[in-house]
Amino acid sequence: MISLLAFVVVFMAIILIYRWWENRGYGKNTALTKRLDVIRNSINSVNAYSFGLKHSPPKVGSLTTWLRTQSWVFVYLDNLVKRSDLPLTIERLLVIVFTVFVFVVLFGILYEINVLLLCMLVLVSFGIPMFWIIRKAALHQKAFYTQFPDVLDYLSRALRVGQSISSALKNASKEFEEPVSLELKVLSDEIEFGVPFKDALIHMSDRLQIKDIDFFVIALILQHEGGGNLVEIMDGLAATIRERSRVHMEIKTLSAEGKLSFWILSFLPVIFAGIFAIINPSHIGVLWTTPEGEQLLMLSVVLLLLGIVTLRSIANIKV
């Protein structure tokens, strides 16, 4: 009992110290900090590729840029963190993941937990924060996608009165709320700080990971390089996105019953396990007190996860 309390106290102390270090100057202007981080990483990345320095030592303070050149995993994590609107960077995320891994392993060694259960505990410890980040990123995408047709209408009107696309994007960043304003400000700042127009658009597309944004980016790049009626393209794209949103809402309404069944079937085994643990603990306790029970429990968890993934793929109909 004393060792458990000591473990909890040390763990909470490290969390508090990390939170103090994280908020020491980072929270003063989170939006501005994010914009500066994205611009710095973009400029460093462009300079590295322009001068053939992709594998050269990174500059001081450009760890994110260096990590992005090492593996697609770091690129995915960096874009995911940027979409989540959380006060995080990829470096801090890696520190959190490593800290959680060390403490979970030490906890398992201290209490001599079965290796299979320890692996499951590690996966759960990683899965919960990653699920939260993915969820926040999805909300960011949804909020941007909802406002995007209005942005296209604004850009179309601005182009009709003679504004350039760069000034129209900059003015749009002041007129709309987040997350549209933040993404457009980052795009405008990158262009002003010397990032090529095409690269700045591709960076925004990589951050957002929205199919309709890809169409918008391709249209702007083609118009910028070869010319064309950009106003007509904006109007057509806005109408297409609104029609896709309408169809998506209809499908969401029709599939609501299937999604409810998905959630019920997903949580039903956990609920019944909790009820049995309260009514007859010795009956269900064999699942984690005997080797055969542990193997059966692991198999049940794997089958449950496979069932959840299958039901989710059936219930979620993409437009």
What's the topology here?
Layout: H1 2-22, H2 30-50, H3 63-68, H4 72-84, H5 90-110, H6 115-160, H7 165-175, H8 180-192, H9 197-208, H10 211-226, H11 230-254, H12 256-279, H13 281-284, H14 286-289, H15 291-315
Helix pairs in contact: 2-8, 4-6, 5-6, 6-7, 6-11, 7-8, 8-9, 9-10, 10-11, 12-15
Describe the structure.
This protein has three domains: 2-139, no CATH class; 141-238; 255-315, no CATH class. Mean pLDDT is 77; it is low at 25-29 and 43-61. It has helices spanning 2-22, 30-50, 63-68, 72-84, 90-110, 115-160, 165-175, 180-192, 197-208, 211-226, 230-254, 256-279, 281-284, 286-289, 291-315. The protein contains 15 helices and no strands. The termini are far apart. The longest helix is centred in the middle third of the chain and has 46 residues, at 115-160. The radius of gyration is 24 Å and the shape is elongated. It has 319 residues and is mainly alpha-helical.
Shape: elongated
Could you name the ranges where pLDDT drops below 50 across 5 or more consecutive residues?
Answer: 25-29, 43-61
The ordered H/E elements are HHHHHHHHHHHHHHH
User: What is the alpha-carbon Rg in Å?
Assistant: 24 Å
Number of helices: 15
- The count of strands amounts to 0
Mean pLDDT, all residues:
77
The total number of structural domains is: 3
Distance between the termini: 54 Å
Q: Which sheet architecture does the biggest sheet show?
A: none
